[in-house]
Write a structure and sequence with these properties.
heterodimer; A: 442 residues; alpha/beta; nine-stranded mixed β-sheet; four-stranded parallel β-sheet; 24% strand; B: 302 residues; five-stranded parallel β-sheet; 9 strands; globular; DHOase_cat (chain A); dihydroorotase activity (chain A); zinc ion binding (chain A)
């Protein structure tokens, strides 16, 4: 199988290339890459793109389209093993490639928990057999996510885990967190912290404020996140271990991370598309599809998150893809599971930041590729000759409508159903695998 | 209107219609035969996921006085945790073809969830800390009976406001009239995020001094274990309404309580049993008000 992509405007932060090129992929390897111009000012022209599929040859005239390295999602839930009724590695990675992701890091809160190498091996073997892209497991910081004893982090690392997190179950004991951070230095993989003081958030269901009072729902104050961000930054500073803060949702957290970075503390951070696309208003009608943890916050927080992305205080956009079954969401709000099925909408929601001139396209792609790769030390070579093909073809102007019933993820839980978005992945090439979304929604 | 989910969804006109109808039903309740044949042949189910005696009894009496057939379905929270979802419970009940569902549930928004999933008329009898609309309506009815108006009154709500659906429904109702609303209590249970039209007082005397109406809320005894209040003794000492208030409240101020009250916590015996207290009148008015709500939700032919 040969894939030829002509006139693609490549933006590749791995190789630091941004130019028009022709790409030839043979048997999953980039055999030729010919740059037509190095001029950065060269913008894609407006002649229509075209796709031509023959049995052994796919030809794409990519005029007006972009080619990026396959995106990396450093925070997803693939639910396997244990919760296959919510998602499987097969369906989750299919949702990933459809959304432009060729690498997915899956959180440890499976059943059994990924706190021992056997679970890691199982995930990797399943991904190898049935997966549609690269899967990088994240191991648990503590055994059973209980926050009491460290898991066998070195063995988990050797088995293939790229980071450690008790995501969703914050390590409340500062001493255990200290030990985890210290130990992670020897292991060579960062700690990813879900920052939430469980005493402050105590059974809360949404952001605490006027709206939570109005709806009679127990709120989660912003302080619940910020207290833990502050604690973890202090630990990171004192014990000099790499710390990555997951799904930042508040202005206060942004301020703390900014200050820490200015002081040279080795901290990085991510946010998710819903935190810069929505506010707490999305739950006003007890919409369980907008129930996430941390909860959607206010307009002031949303603006701060956008500013933090712009100023590189927040390094990464991750999906926190959290698929759930219909039953998990078809309940009163308080009882509903937290999470949004995010892989299939993340890029388009994030491209709005480019259309609105918050970020340049290059900055956005960095947050989806080179930044997570650096944090997790995932070895990616980008788009270059002799490397494995790991790229996506994107029309950043294609309009489409989100239809949850068309999600390939088993999780149809999205607050974006019916939204008009601008920007679509037309094709994902991952080694010998090729996913064509060219004709969808046209 | 198919359902009564909260006061939030009602207009001032809706509220006035309910209160006028309640007045007519109160006259029925004073007759020798206290029952009307209005809804004969229709069925109501009281679906209670939380223990409740007085609200359930009040609804049951209201339903029976409208000649409804009544089913009581009490579901202990633990049995729900064991298996059946609210959705499935609801579908089971729907299969009985009932006309009215009165629901109490520990989750805010549960009544709305039920209303969204059934063609029956749904009445919220308390959902989590969200709303208890018939309580606010019966409170308004009781105030009207004595004061003749709601507009122009100063109303102090005293106690655990954050956890009180009664306080929320009263707030939304009174906000639709020209009233001055005050929240009074310790800062741990008075919301920092109160609406703009509410005045907040941490001092009992200041908060209730010029009020026409003093609404007390029940202090849930477990609150002292969750650090909201140091002790019930201290609460009574600082925010409990005791007979010394008679020296500084208005002569015609009325004292209300949704019940069940804790004597010696939010209210002293002298105050509870005084002529200012209209607590028992509220109970009587609850039946008339609930009859009005059920009656007005009847799907009537054009």
């Amino acid at each position: 199988m040969i894939i030829k992509i002509y006139n693609a405007y490549i933006i590749d932060p791995f190789t630091d290339k941004e130019a028009v090129a022709d790409i030839v992929v043979e048997n999953g390897i980039i055999s030729r890459l010919i740059f037509k111009s190095q001029a950065l000012s060269l913008k894609p022209d407006t002649k229509p793109s075209a796709l031509n599929i023959k049995p052994d040859l796919i030809e794409i005239d990519a005029r007006g389209l972009y080619v990026f390295p396959g995106l990396i999602d450093m925070h997803a839930h693939l639910r396997e093993p244990g919760y296959e009724y919510k998602e499987t590695i097969r369906t989750g990675t299919l949702a990933a490639v459809k959304g432009g992701f060729t690498s997915v890091c899956c959180m440890a809160n499976t059943n059994p928990v990924n706190d021992n190498p056997e679970v890691t091996y199982y995930i990797l073997a399943k991904a190898n057999e049935e997966g549609n892209c690269d899967v990088y497991p994240i191991g648990a910081i503590t055994k059973g996510l209980k926050g009491e004893e460290l898991s066998e982090m070195a063995m988990l690392r050797q088995a293939g885990c790229v980071a450690f997190s008790d995501d969703g179950m914050p390590v409340m004991n500062a001493m255990i967190m200290r030990r985890a951070l210290e130990y992670s230095k020897a292991v060579g993989a960062p700690i990813i912290s879900h920052c939430e003081d469980l005493f402050l958030s105590e059974n809360g269901a949404m952001n605490e404020g006027k709206l939570s009072f109005y709806m009679g729902l127990k709120g989660i104050p912003r302080a619940a996140e910020e207290v833990m961000v502050a604690r973890d930054i202090i630990l990171c500073k004192h014990f000099h271990a790499p710390l990555h803060i997951a799904h930042v949702s508040t202005k206060g957290s942004v301020d703390l991370i900014k200050k820490a970075k200015e002081e040279g503390v080795p901290v990085t951070a991510e946010t998710c598309p819903h935190y810069f696309s929505l506010t707490e208003e999305a739950v006003r009608d007890y919409n369980t599809n907008a129930k996430v943890n941390p909860p959607l916050r206010t307009e002031q927080d949303r603006e701060a998150i956008k500013e933090a992305l712009k100023e590189a205080v927040v390094d990464v956009i991750a999906t926190d893809h959290a698929p759930h079954s219909l039953d998990d969401k078809n309940t009163p709000f308080q009882e509903a599971a937290n999470g949004i099925s995010g892989l299939e909408t993340a890029l388009a929601l994030s491209l709005k930041l480019v259309h609105d001139k918050v970020l340049t396209l290059r900055q956005l792609i960095e947050k989806f590729t080179v930044n997570p790769a650096n944090i997790l030390k995932i070895n990616k070579s980008g788009i270059k000759e002799k490397a494995e093909a790991d790229l996506i073809v994107v029309d950043i102007n294609r309009q489409w409508t989100v239809k949850k019933e068309e999600f390939v993820s088993m999780g149809k839980n999205t607050p974006f159903d019916g939204w008009q978005l601008k920007g679509k992945v037309l094709m994902t090439v991952k080694g010998r695998k090729f996913f064509n979304m060219w004709q969808e929604d046209k | 209107m198919k359902d009564l989910i909260g006061i939030k969804e009602l207009s001032r006109q809706d509220i006035e219609e309910i209160l006028n109808t309640a007045k007519a039903f109160k006259e029925v309740l004073q007759r020798d035969i206290k029952k009307v044949p209005t809804l004969r042949g229709k069925t109501a189910i009281n679906l209670f996921f939380e223990p409740s005696t007085r609200t359930r009894t009040s609804f049951e009496l209201a339903e029976k006085r409208l000649s409804l057939d009544v089913l009581n379905f009490s579901v202990s929270t633990s049995s729900v945790v064991k298996g059946e979802t609210l959705y499935d419970t609801l579908k089971t009940i729907e299969a009985y073809n009932v006309d009215y569902i009165v629901i109490r549930h520990p989750c805010s928004g549960a009544a709305k969830f039920v209303a969204n999933h059934t063609p029956a008329c749904v009445i919220n009898a308390g959902d989590g800390t969200n709303e208890h609309p018939t309580q606010a309506l019966l409170d308004a009815f009781s105030i009207l009976e004595i004061k003749g108006r709601l507009d122009g009154l100063k109303i102090a709500i005293v106690g655990d406001i954050i956890h009180s659906r009664v306080a929320r429904s009263n707030l939304y109702l009174l906000s639709k009239f020209d009233t001055e609303i005050r929240f009074v209590g310790p800062p741990t249970v008075v919301p920092g995020y109160a609406p703009d039209n509410v005045k907040i007082f941490y001092d009992l005397k200041e908060g209730i001094k010029d009020s026409d109406v003093i609404m007390l809320l029940r202090i849930q005894l477990e609150r002292q274990n969750a650090a909201f209040i140091p002790s019930l003794k201290e609460y009574f000492h600082v925010w409990g309404v005791k007979k010394d208030v008679f020296s500084y409240i208005k002569d015609d101020a009325i004292i209300m309580h949704p019940g069940p009250m804790n004597r010696g916590v939010e209210i002293s015996t002298e105050v509870a049993d005084s002529s200012r207290s209209i607590i028992l009148r509220q109970v009587t008015n609850g039946i008339a008000t609930r009859m009005a709500v059920i009656y007005l939700l009847t799907p009537r032919e054009a």
